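call fold(seq) -> tokens
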Amino acid sequence: MSTKPSSSRSPLDEAVEAAKDKKALDIVLLNLEEVATFTDHFLICSGTSSRQVQSIADEVERRLKAGGLRAAHIEGYNHAEWVLLDYVDFVVHIFSERARGFYDLERLWRTARRVPVSNEE
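ret:
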């Protein structure tokens, strides 16, 4: 398990790996390039507790910051039901399991193409 950013990975791939490293559940990557103008991708995942949701957000932020990329906007960190990290070209959504079911972004953005995410380390 790597904790350093890899220069061969894109920032989006680095965010996926950071979420995997913190044991995020049900990681989904949506390509929004053909259906939205405000961002290219959504990375959606879940945590089992508010602490895990925050831990996933912390790791994504730490790894991308180490690679020179800072979030343009962060929302929801203190409540940890739905943490949003906006990196302009992609947005990371980290949900509690309950909030993810309620907001159901995958259904709302069902016309977006799903990008396969490998579960391998």
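Residues 64 and 70 are 7 Å apart (CA to CA).
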